[in-house]
Amino acid sequence: MKVLVSDSLAEEGINKLKDNFTVDVITGLSEEDLIDKIRDYDALVIRSGTKVTEKIINAADNLKIIGRAGVGVDNIDVDAATNKGIIVVNTPEGNMISAAEHTISMMMSMCRNIPQAHASLKSRKWERKKFMGVEVNGKYLGVIGLGRIGSYVAQRAQALHMKVLGYDPYVSHEQADEMGVELTSVEEISKRADFITVHTPLTKATKNIIDADKFALMKDGVRILNCARGGIIDENALVDALRSGKVAGAALDVFVEEPPFDSPLLDFDNVITTPHLGASTEEAQVNVAEAVADEVVSALTGGPVNNAINIPTVKPELMPALTPYLKLAETMGKFAGQLMSGNYKRVEVEYSGDILEKDIKPVTVAALKGILENALGSGVNFVNATSLAKSRKIKVIEGKSETTNKAPSTITLELTSGSETKSITGTVSGDGRIGRIIQIDNYHVDITPTEYMLVVDHLNRPKVIGPCAIMLGKNNINISGMQVGQVGLGEKTIMVLNVDSEVPKSLLDEIKSIEGILDAKPVTI
Prior knowledge:
single chain, about 525 residues, about 35% helix
């Protein structure tokens, strides 16, 4: 078997591959070059430099696995790979310590003006008074995202005698207590923290989670860190906060556009920057190289794949019949997760009808993957979804019912958080085995999920639906489908709109202001 490595990879990983296969290391390939070469290979190993497009995947007649040495898979067309039965794996744990240590290093460098003082002395200046710093001892650090990296940062900050505030919708108060972290909201962190660091993936829910409104809540002289992903912090709002003096300093390893040569953030003397170095340690590079090599070797020799992003462990002959249910369950998980406020402690998946003849365990895992991806991003896969839920003390219950009067075969997903419960029922139908959502809570609907949807809680009365539709139309957002739960006049109901583009937050606020509309939530699949 042949493996193509198209980005630089530590020798330890390449040697592991060479022990088992024929390996070609060819970097700097264009899309056309890869299209021409890929048909000869059984595996492709990349980092962030190679973009694996649908055209490349369609040309890959023999490709069985794409291995990403690192966390993000946004440079891979995962849907195209899935459709062709190609496994996509990443290495989510190899660089976590390095990323956490880099965050602490950036914080300390920012506090003591180390880069600025270094540059000054190198230019033969002795400016001790100019570079007065601040201590971190006794200060509040707000950590947004308490996954592995965020929890490592919290642990190290506590060793510096900092007090840690945390936000993570998938971490319970009990878990936070075990970490020594005070669990609270992003708004409270904004109000109380002296330092704020973000450690979430970049998702629809986390994009610009620190925006102008959050900066307005912050203390004067707050300091900001981002060593996670560009776009989690609104860069324009950060620029304004730096100009006004609200933010005393920032330490940034990542940017929306990289390299960020046109960014005004590079013009501030009190902003220290590094060129996306969070994972750039010798140890991390070896870790991810060896991890991705192990995955490729295992996959090509018939062993288990521990970090599959897109394909669960199912016998190949069963995949065609099970795939529609896997896709439906994952979609339902994403849908339900975006309607909940987070911190739920119970997930119940109930199966009814013909689906009971199939292996339902991978379907439950698909539902968990969809739910957790909302907050944790692409690091969630079919292998780790169950353990991630367990680590967050989410109770997962699987139920079965022999009969159903809703459809020949249904999946019902119920999320519970305190007194709040959200229930969704789905089925598959047609020769193409299309997934549909047929019930949300007590409301009967018939929805074919699309990339963008808007779920609106409202009162069933005149002059509610019309103004909402008009407002979307005025903003050039097309409605391609609509379902309304049937209830009596004046009663509370639900409307689900399939729309052709994302609904911006400003428009969402306008829709919520319409008389008779109780809430409106965007859903992205």
